[in-house]
Task: inverse folding
């Protein structure tokens, strides 16, 4: 039954592009693709829910008809990520059903409705594949379809350059993933064989597999320093696509990493865990620090994805350290934390990107310095954006807090381990996570405060209007999910507990994990009752003008800007930014009575340059050397062919 | 019975908070050779403000009025986790010290948003500075609590208090002293006292908290003021509970509770005296020295965690 539903889900998804192409000349069928897509996604949610909570496994094997072994299989881990993809994509498509017709017409709209379902389907393929071929097939398609979706928004020189970097890094990452699969040879066929053969592998080979998976999936997840593509590719996509890329696509990399590190390899030595932990710390801190200095909303959100991937890696690293020390109960807790943060980040990050879409729809700009006062003009968008901000910051009663709390809890549990280095390092990682949380709070106070509060900083922002109903509904669904998971985390935790039990042999989610679910609903009730009570008590208010020290002429340019807000933090963490400043005072010999002053400050990511520049230079130099082979002289080419022939013959003779 | 007692604890803390503020102000005045206002003045202020009308800038949204309410409520929830007279609290869950840190952060986040909704430069200025201080204080706050949690082998604040009560005062370890100093430094930053922030200033060059609340008036301002008074007292109660809980009632008899109340008042009085002395003798730090101040707190908290882990 479930299997049938899964099949029909796949077929329905595949049919959307076909229907789009067939009905493209028929204006009345304009609503058909989104409706069909939402219907099939709803089926996907149902199937995934049965698989995740019910624990039903099912397989779709088409190896007989395909020339490669190609099979899909849904176990609990796959079901969880399938649930993540479908349940987040559903509201995003609902949002798009109004957003896309408003912003894209003609061919571009058709392309969006063709590529979107294919992009979603490729992600579904990645998380449900049970053979190496199916996985890699989906993995490559996912990159290509997303690049295609970015291209729909235009193809200026700058955009092409960004897409080139995206594709380049994705393929470098994919090469590492393929390498990780190849090391399983001759058992690299399906996942069950790989799982069985992993236990027989010699340790150096296991390490090689782990490192390749770490680099390959890390590139897709956007860990520092492999995150270079992320703030370039995500902001230039259409907003719903950014939501899917940031919210959902990055999670497929986490899925791959969990599949390899926990399912196939079953954990390893402690240093694997420390490596992942360190990556998490660096990605989290640098991600959020770069985000603070941004004032383009989508770039800022893209950097926050780097940060949240860092938080997920903190949970994964802690789980690996626990596994290495045979504390599988706490490993289950840490892994649960990481997986829950995947889901939470998928929800609130896609909500934030949809919010960015709504802002650009209403105010025609994403530059924070030109926004302001949107809350009064876009009540619902503002409210859901606030919920998303509270969630990503990790405030209690919102979903981000639950997963961060679980991560903290696992760090605390480490102190009880006999292994001294783990007992010291993991609790200290809690300090890093707290610092990341604090910085994120500062950043989102800036984002929400500058964009939605105060007074509009530009005419467009002042004349913004609330977005259309489907867009509001899409965002509303996601915001509701943030609050529900934040107050009743038990809903998801129970399923995740069973999932980690299956993944880590001998583990059971400790009761400590449930302690929070007992407290949160009461706090929520208390807060609700008290706030309602106070609100009822002090209903009367009187509107006045903002206090301007008794002087006239307070205008919106006197408000703190996004740049001004982040200045103290940028100054404290100036080591990270290395701003490139030039100050020209004319004339130079009269510093106190200048005719003109021009000041320019460009934030350079110096460490990225010093990291990537030598590699790029080396490749370019090598390419230039190689170019000397191409003389354009036909005799020389004939010589090459002759030399190659001789070499082959000699090889055949002695090999 | 325990439940009623725990609820009473919360109530006591909420009602006592303005008095603590009043006593500090009075003591500071005396130290500075002024007569000073009555210690009951904060109550009168709150009453006055609650009776006034709520002035809201025309450009402000619902966030402006919601922020003080959420700040107040979240501060109240924080008090429910801290034992006062005996070693148990209204809300008790393993890992609740993390919740406590984040509830405090929640209040601050709301106030930052409320400040920016006013539409003047003061609000943004205060929020920006508050963002700096709160960002850097969160890690040492959490780590110092964490070190006590590691030592006590429990994740709940009430559990930690009970554990410390079971220890002998003379076996007070150096680790505890480290955590105590770190938490005390954080407490100063969190509650906006000198040398991090000056609660009585009205000069835009120096103010942080006051700049944020400049636009507020009437009941909203009353909620903010009351919440910050509660926050100060609850942080004191946390310091007392975690590091010098001796004297708390071990049974729920009337005598034990009376003794516990008396001892608590003495301890709070001692802390108040120290605070007043420090505030009268130390100048406020330049804002860009505050990160160094919190850096010291962070270093101490890190050392506290490392040493507790080593000395288990």
Result:
């Amino acid at each position: 039954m479930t299997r049938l539903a899964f099949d029909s889900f796949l077929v329905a998804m595949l049919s959307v592009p076909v229907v789009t192409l067939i009905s493209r000349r028929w204006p009345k069928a304009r609503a058909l693709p989104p409706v069909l897509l939402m219907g099939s996604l709803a089926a996907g949610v149902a199937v995934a829910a049965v698989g995740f909570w019910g624990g039903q496994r099912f397989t779709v094997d088409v190896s007989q008809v395909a020339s490669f072994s190609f099979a899909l299989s849904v176990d609990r881990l796959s079901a969880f990520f399938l649930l993540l993809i479908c349940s987040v994509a559903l509201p995003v498509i609902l949002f798009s059903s109004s957003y896309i017709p408003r912003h894209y017409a003609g061919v571009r709209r058709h392309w969006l409705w063709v590529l979107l379902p294919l992009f979603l389907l490729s992600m579904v393929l990645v998380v449900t594949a049970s053979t190496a071929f199916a996985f890699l097939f989906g993995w490559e398609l996912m990159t290509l379809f997303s690049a295609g979706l970015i291209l729909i928004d235009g193809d200026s020189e700058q955009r092409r350059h960004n897409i080139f970097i995206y594709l380049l890094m994705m393929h470098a990452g994919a090469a590492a993933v393929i390498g990780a699969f190849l090391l399983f040879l001759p058992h690299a066929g399906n996942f069950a064989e790989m799982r069985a053969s992993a236990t027989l592998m010699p340790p150096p080979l296991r390490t090689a597999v782990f490192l390749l998976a770490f680099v390959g999936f890390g590139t897709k997840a956007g860990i520092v320093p492999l995150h270079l593509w992320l703030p370039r590719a995500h902001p230039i996509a259409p907003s719903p696509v950014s939501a899917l890329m940031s919210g959902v696509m990055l999670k497929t990399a986490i899925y791959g990493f969990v599949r390899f590190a926990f399912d196939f390899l079953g954990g390893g030595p402690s240093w694997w865990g420390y490596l992942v932990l360190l990556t998490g710390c660096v990605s989290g801190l640098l991600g959020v620090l770069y985000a603070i200095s941004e004032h383009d909303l989508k770039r800022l959100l893209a950097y926050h994805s780097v940060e949240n991937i860092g938080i997920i890696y903190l949970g994964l690293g802690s789980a690996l350290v626990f596994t290495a020390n045979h504390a599988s109960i706490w490993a289950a807790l840490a892994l649960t934390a990481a997986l829950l943060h995947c889901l939470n980040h998928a929800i609130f990050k896609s909500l934030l990107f949809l919010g960015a879409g709504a802002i650009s729809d209403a105010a025609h700009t994403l530059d924070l310095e030109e926004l302001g006062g949107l809350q009064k003009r876009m009540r619902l968008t503002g409210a859901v954006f606030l919920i998303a901000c509270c969630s990503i910051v990790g405030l209690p009663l919102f979903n981000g807090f639950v997963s961060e709390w679980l991560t903290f809890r696992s760090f605390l549990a480490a102190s009880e381990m006999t292994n001294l280095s783990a007992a010291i390092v993991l609790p200290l990682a809690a300090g890093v996570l707290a610092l990341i949380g604090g910085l994120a709070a500062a950043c989102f106070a800036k984002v929400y405060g500058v964009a939605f509060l105060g007074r509009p900083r530009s005419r467009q922002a002042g004349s913004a209007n609330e977005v259309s109903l489907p867009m509001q509904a899409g965002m509303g669904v996601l915001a509701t999910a943030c609050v529900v998971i934040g107050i009743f985390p038990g809903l998801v935790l129970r399923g995740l507990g069973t999932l980690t039990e299956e993944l880590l042999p001998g583990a059971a989610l400790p009761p400590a994990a449930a302690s929070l679910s007992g407290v949160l609903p009461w706090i929520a009730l208390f807060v609700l009752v008290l706030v309602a009570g106070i609100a009822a008590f002090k209903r009367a208010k009187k509107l006045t003008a903002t206090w301007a020290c008794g002087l006239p002429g307070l205008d919106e340019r006197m408000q703190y800007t996004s740049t001004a807000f982040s200045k103290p933090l940028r100054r404290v963490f100036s080591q990270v930014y290395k701003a490139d400043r030039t100050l020209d005072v004319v004339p130079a010999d009269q510093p106190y009575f200048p005719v003109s002053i021009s000041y320019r400050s460009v934030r350079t990511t110096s460490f990225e340059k010093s990291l990537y520049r030598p590699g790029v230079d080396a490749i370019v130099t090598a390419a230039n050397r190689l170019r000397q082979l191409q003389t354009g002289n036909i005799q020389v080419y004939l010589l090459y062919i002759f030399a190659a022939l001789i070499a082959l013959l000699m090889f055949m003779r002695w090999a | 019975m325990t439940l009623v007692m725990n609820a009473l604890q919360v109530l006591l803390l909420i009602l006592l908070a303005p008095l603590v503020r009043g006593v500090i102000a009075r003591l500071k005045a005396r130290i500075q050779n002024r007569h000073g206002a009555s210690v009951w003045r904060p109550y009168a202020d709150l009453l006055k403000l609650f009776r006034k009308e709520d002035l809201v800038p025309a450009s402000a949204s619902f966030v402006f009025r919601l922020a003080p309410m959420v700040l107040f409520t979240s501060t109240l929830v924080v008090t429910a986790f801290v034992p006062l007279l005996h070693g148990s609290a209204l809300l008790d869950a393993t890992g609740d010290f993390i919740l406590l840190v984040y509830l405090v952060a929640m209040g601050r986040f709301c106030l930052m948003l409320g400040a920016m909704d006013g539409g003047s430069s003061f609000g943004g200025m205060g929020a920006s500075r508050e963002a700096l201080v709160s960002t850097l204080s969160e890690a040492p706050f959490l780590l110092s609590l964490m070190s006590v949690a590691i030592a006590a082998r429990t994740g709940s604040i009430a559990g930690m208090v009970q554990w410390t009560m079971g220890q002998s005062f003379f076996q007070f370890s150096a680790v505890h002293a480290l955590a105590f100093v770190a938490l005390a430094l954080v407490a100063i930053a969190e509650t906006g006292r000198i040398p991090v922030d000056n609660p009585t200033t009205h000069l835009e060059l120096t103010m942080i908290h006051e700049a944020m609340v400049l636009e507020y008036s009437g009941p909203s301002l009353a909620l903010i003021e009351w919440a910050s008074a509660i926050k100060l007292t609850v942080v004191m109660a946390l310091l007392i509970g975690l590091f010098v809980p001796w004297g708390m009632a071990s049974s729920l008899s009337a005598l034990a509770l009376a003794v516990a109340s008396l001892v608590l008042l003495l301890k709070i009085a001692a802390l108040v005296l120290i605070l007043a002395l420090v505030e009268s003798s130390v100048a406020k730090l330049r804002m860009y020295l505050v990160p160094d101040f919190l850096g010291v707190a962070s270093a101490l908290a890190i050392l506290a965690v490392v040493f507790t882990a080593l000395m288990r």
Notes: The longest strand of chain B covers residues 54-57. The two ends of chain B are 36 Å apart (CA to CA). DSSP finds eleven helices and one strand in chain B. Residues 195 and 283 of chain B are 6 Å apart (CA to CA).
